[in-house]
């Protein structure tokens, strides 16, 4: 009668070594730790901008009201824009917002335009 070991040798099957499982588990734990750290690091530097409203002052300017929620104590830069009725960009401005003691700031700015705009909005914000 043949044993399981003899069959394994005959057909070239090998038993998986325990060390391979341990190395795989260690690599998986390291990947999870790195992915977690990257997620936390990115969320710490995230900036959220909310449009609160706009007013078309005249055919060459729009007043934009918005709120920025940023990491406390960090300067922020926001790009704001004015669009016409066909959603073409008719005005653009980059604002440097210095950090203040609060986590959130309400701001207003005038965006100069080359023609009459129908809306004003925050395009994007980032930590400076």
Gist of the model:
This protein has 128 residues and is α+β, with helices and mostly antiparallel strands.
Topology (elements, then pairings):
Blueprint: H1 4-10, H2 18-44, E1 48-58, E2 61-69, E3 76-83, E4 89-97, E5 104-112, E6 119-127
Antiparallel strand pairs: 1-2, 2-5, 3-4, 3-6
What features would you describe in this structure?
The chain has helices at 4-10, 18-44, and strands at 48-58, 61-69, 76-83, 89-97, 104-112, 119-127. The mean pLDDT is 89. It is 27% helix and 43% strand. Strands 1-2-5 form a 3-stranded antiparallel sheet, with no helix packed on it. The protein folds into 2 domains: 4-44, no CATH class; 48-127, Immunoglobulin-like.
Structural class: alpha+beta
Reading off the top of the CATH hierarchy, the class of the largest domain is best stated as Mainly Beta
Total beta-strand segments: 6
Which value, in Å, is the CA radius of gyration?
Answer: 29 Å
β-strand percent reads: 35-45%
Residue windows where pLDDT falls under 50 for at least 5 positions: none
- What would you call the shape? elongated
What is the H/E string?
Answer: HHEEEEEE
Whole-number count of domains? 2
Largest β-sheet summary: 3 strands, antiparallel
At CATH level 3, the topology of the largest domain is Immunoglobulin-like
Distance between the termini: 76 Å
Major beta sheet, strand line-up: 1-2-5
């Amino acid at each position: 009668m043949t044993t399981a070991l003899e069959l394994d040798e005959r057909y070239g099957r090998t038993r998986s070594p325990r060390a391979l499982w341990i190395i795989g588990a260690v690599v998986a734990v390291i990947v999870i730790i790195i992915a977690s750290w990257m997620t936390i690091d990115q969320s710490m530097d995230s900036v959220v901008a909310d449009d609160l409203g706009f007013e078309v002052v005249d055919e060459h300017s729009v007043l934009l009201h918005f709120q920025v929620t940023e990491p406390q104590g960090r300067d922020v830069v926001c790009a704001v824009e004015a669009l016409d009725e066909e959603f073409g960009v008719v005005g653009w401005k980059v604002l440097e917002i210095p950090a203040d003691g609060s986590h959130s700031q309400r701001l207003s700015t005038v965006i100069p335009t080359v023609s009459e705009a129908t809306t004003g909005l925050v395009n994007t914000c980032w930590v400076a």
